[in-house]
């Protein structure tokens, strides 16, 4: 079948960032005509600055400013030539100074992003492999992905998971000369650090292992001469490590530095390093400021500055230790992360602190998993003891209020970050008058009420769900056993606001991934059938398609009802320890999209839904007139002439096991071919039970003898159809013999015969489901774009599949 369109990662990020911008916490502008580093002016208000990455405050040092201004007057605002031709007069001195710092060969780059783009493709050879830590900085991942075009394999491990790293090394060691593990020295969000001692042990154990370490957030505040966290632990740089530092951020100037002790590798990068060759060089002012900063780093003064910063870090750590604030990582880096869990809580908390007079950063997807939103606080020498104490007091006061405003609790946040929970407080109802009905079987739900709210579409009316409950239980394979969860929320007058159902089931994590990813994963699954699969708490079921949520948006409390539903799901998630929550099959809705983003879900594109919304023709002779001119031509050329090839048989009930086996074989053909929507195959038990259920029928195509070399009564296509309350005819899935598929236009004929059957039975509409929307549109279906909202425990699987695409 045709490949479905997939969600563009940048579109998802755009929606998340747009929401954060609307909340006033992102894409802000600093104001004022001067800047000291201690305060920053935003929205006409002076705020104490706890968001800088200039941890030592050198960007405000008079010596750096004077050097920069002097260089501008001497050499101009820029030196507009590539360094490949000639460097500005100050470059040689800067390179000498930075070499003195590291006692190793160095390469100055315009910035770390361009530096990675120049260094990684030069350092990594075609016979090498790359393993990314899934939290390594985006600039490293982006540069590594360039090597896909050279067929360099790129793997990914969970953050600092050394067991997983060693497994990858073992897997790659027989095929590749060098294996590069790429990680940060200090990670920019949580402030946690790379396990350097253990990594060096792995290097000793596996000589092929090389390390590429981005230490820009460890620079200046740590290490001899401020050369960073990595060298503070290693002492000196071995040949198998390529290190990146910065001349901006804490260093106070601009640019970045690659450090490489391997002579041949250094020469190759230095001689021709892509952007290092063709990009503009650092401006004279930046080079001069970097020289002034290097002089400070080479003097005893750097240790005084480091100690002053450490005093502030220690004070902040001590104050936080006396609070219940959820500090995600405790160490002596200047980066602190206070978890808020949901984005909406983060927005609220940041805005409260800004009103109180403190500027902090929001950590948000994709820098962190969407459910691990939080406030990143950075400590610098600019911060004084009094405002550090005041910030902690403000957080202690406002944090519980931000939680209360957004209907969450400290324990929910702590569980999201796997932190120890506090003593549980009584859970408050979101709305006291809500009546929340939760059941685990449709048999405990009133049939008439359910069908009124949910029962006029798809295969999930009351009878359809009872059927599914009976099928997907007590099966041998785990993917064929589902738990059902029903939620109905009513107001004080017992008026329904919301109704839905969820299943807890095993999914392939690449269900909506590009086919290229699924092909690779299916190869792995030949040996490990449950590779990259997870238990998902998903709206609807893997079997059904359609509007699985009844939501009365005219009700004043509909948003609170959604929040109540999500709270219940979170309880279930904790109970089952599911890896994903999925809300699915939504049409475009800005309000719902914003609500879901704020509650920790990211939007992703689903396959289009295809429906014939009105079977308004009296007879099938009138049907072609309902089609567009182009579709009528398609009907007359590719459908109508082939109808004579087939004998059409509808089975409402069959006990012929051989026949059921044949139908299952046809279904399995399609399942194997349809990696566009990669799902576990449905169990054979389903087909046997369908054959005995009054709401199911099998619309079957038999190729006539004259078109099949004298062979008769062999089914070549079957549509498995559900009859929903005389409202919706639902061809739930399909089976085909691919040996005959194209020659006899089987797929198109099945679509047409489905329309004929639904018309004959008097149904009002047809729900053709997902995928193959181009073909379904040609037979008159309306194409309805659909979206899902996904909440994952972490970003690992999403990022891994991104790495795998076209790898």
What does this structure look like?
With 807 residues, the chain is an alpha+beta fold. It folds into 4 domains: 135 residues, Aspartate Aminotransferase, domain 1 (Alpha-Beta Complex), CATH 3.90.1150; 238 residues, Type I PLP-dependent aspartate aminotransferase-like (Major domain) (Aspartate Aminotransferase, domain 2), CATH 3.40.640; 172 residues, Aminopeptidase (3-Layer(aba) Sandwich), CATH 3.40.630; 178 residues, Aminopeptidase (3-Layer(aba) Sandwich), CATH 3.40.630. Helices cover 37% and strands 21% of the residues. It is built from 26 helices and 27 strands. The strands form 4 sheets. Strands 15, 16, 17, 18, 19, 20, 21, 22, 23, 24, 25, 26 and 27 form a 13-stranded mixed sheet that branches. Strand 24 and strand 25 form a beta hairpin. Helix 4 packs parallel to helix 5. The longest helix has 21 residues. The N terminus is likely disordered. It holds the Pfam family Acetyltransf_6. Its cofactor is pyridoxal 5'-phosphate. Keywords: Aminotransferase, Transferase. This is Aminotransferase class I/II-fold pyridoxal phosphate-dependent enzyme. One of its GO terms (molecular function) is transaminase activity.
């Amino acid at each position: 079948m045709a490949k479905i369109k997939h969600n563009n990662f940048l579109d998802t990020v755009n929606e998340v960032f747009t929401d954060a911008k609307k909340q006033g916490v992102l894409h802000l502008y600093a104001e004022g005509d001067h800047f000291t580093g201690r305060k920053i002016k935003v929205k006409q208000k002076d705020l104490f600055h706890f968001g800088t990455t200039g941890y030592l405050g050198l960007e405000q040092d008079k010596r750096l400013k004077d050097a920069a201004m002097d260089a501008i007057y001497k050499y101009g605002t820029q030196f507009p030539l590539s360094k490949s031709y000639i460097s500005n007069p100050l470059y040689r001195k800067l390179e000498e100074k930075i070499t003195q710092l590291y006692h190793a060969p160095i390469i100055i780059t315009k910035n770390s992003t361009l530096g990675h783009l120049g260094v990684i493709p030069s350092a990594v050879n075609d016979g090498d492999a790359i393993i990314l830590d899934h939290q390594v900085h985006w600039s490293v991942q982006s540069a590594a992905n360039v090597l896909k075009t050279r067929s360099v394999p790129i793997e990914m491990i969970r953050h600092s998971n050394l067991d997983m790293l060693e497994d990858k090394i073992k897997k790659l060691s027989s095929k590749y000369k060098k294996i590069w593990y790429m990680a940060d020295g200090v990670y920019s969000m949580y402030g946690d650090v790379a396990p350097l001692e253990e990594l060096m042990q792995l290097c000793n154990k596996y000589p092929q292992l090389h390390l590429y370490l981005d230490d820009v957030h460890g620079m200046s505040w740590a290490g001899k001469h401020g050369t960073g966290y990595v060298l503070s632990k290693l002492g000196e740089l071995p040949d198998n490590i390529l290190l990146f530092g910065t001349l901006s951020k804490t260093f106070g100037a601009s640019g970045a530095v690659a450090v490489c002790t391997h002579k041949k590798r250094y020469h190759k990068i230095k001689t021709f390093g892509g952007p290092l060759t063709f990009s503009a060089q650092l401006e004279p002012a930046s080079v001069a400021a970097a020289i002034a900063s290097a002089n400070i780093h080479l003097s005893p003064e750097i240790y005084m500055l480091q100690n002053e910063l450490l005093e502030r870090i220690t004070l902040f750590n001590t104050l936080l230790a006396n609070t219940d604030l959820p500090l995600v990582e405790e160490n002596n880096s200047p980066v602190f992360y206070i978890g808020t869990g949901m984005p909406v809580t983060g927005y609220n908390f940041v805005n409260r602190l800004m009103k109180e007079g403190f500027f902090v950063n929001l950590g948000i997807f994709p820098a962190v998993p969407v459910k691990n939103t939080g406030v990143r606080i950075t400590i610098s020498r600019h911060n004084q003891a009094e405002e550090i104490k005041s910030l902690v007091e403000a957080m202690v006061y406002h944090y519980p209020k931000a939680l209360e405003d957004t209907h969450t609790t400290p324990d929910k946040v702590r569980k999201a970050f796997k932190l120890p929970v506090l003593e549980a407080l009584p859970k408050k109802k979101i709305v006291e008058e809500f009546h929340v009905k939760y059941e685990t079987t449709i048999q405990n739900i009133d049939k008439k009420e359910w069908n009124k709210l949910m029962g006029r579409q798809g295969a999930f009316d009351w009878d359809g769900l009872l059927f599914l409950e009976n099928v997907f239980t007590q099966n041998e394979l785990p993917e064929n056993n589902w738990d059902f969860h029903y939620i109905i929320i009513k107001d004080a007058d017992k008026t329904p606001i919301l109704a839905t159902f969820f299943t807890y089931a095993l999914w392939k994590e690449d269900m909506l991934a590009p086919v290229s990813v699924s092909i690779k994963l299916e190869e792995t699954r030949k040996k490990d059938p449950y590779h990259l699969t997870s238990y998902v708490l998903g709206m609807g079921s893997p079997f059904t398609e359609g509007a699985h949520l009844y939501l009365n948006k005219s009700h004043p409390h509909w948003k609170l009802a959604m929040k109540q539903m999500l709270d219940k799901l979170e309880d279930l998630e904790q109970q089952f320890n599911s890896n994903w929550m999925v809300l699915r099959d939504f049409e475009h809705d800005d309000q719902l999209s914003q609500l879901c983003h704020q509650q920790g879900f990211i939007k992703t594109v689903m396959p289009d839904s295809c429906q014939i919304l009105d079977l308004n023709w009296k007879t099938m002779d009138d049907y072609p007139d309902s089609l567009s001119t182009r579709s009528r031509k398609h009907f007359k050329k590719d459908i109508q002439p082939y109808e004579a090839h087939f004998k059409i048989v509808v089975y409402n009930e069959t006990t012929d096991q051989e026949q059921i086996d044949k139908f299952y074989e046809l279904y399995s053909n399609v399942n194997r071919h349809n990696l566009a929507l990669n799902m576990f195959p449905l169990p054979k038990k389903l087909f046997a039970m369908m054959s005995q259920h009054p709401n199911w029928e099998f619309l079957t195509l038999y190729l006539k003898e004259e078109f099949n070399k004298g062979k008769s009564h062999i089914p070549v296509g079957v549509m498995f159809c559900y009859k929903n309350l005389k409202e919706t005819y639902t061809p739930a899935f399909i089976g085909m013999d691919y040996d005959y598929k194209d020659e006899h236009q089987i797929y198109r004929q099945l679509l047409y015969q489905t329309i004929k059957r639904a018309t004959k039975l008097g149904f009002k509409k047809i729900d053709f489901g997902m995928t193959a929307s181009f073909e379904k549109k040609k037979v008159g279906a309306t194409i309805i774009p659909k979206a899902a909202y996904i909440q994952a425990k972490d970003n690992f699987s999403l990022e891994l599949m991104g790495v795998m695409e076209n790898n």
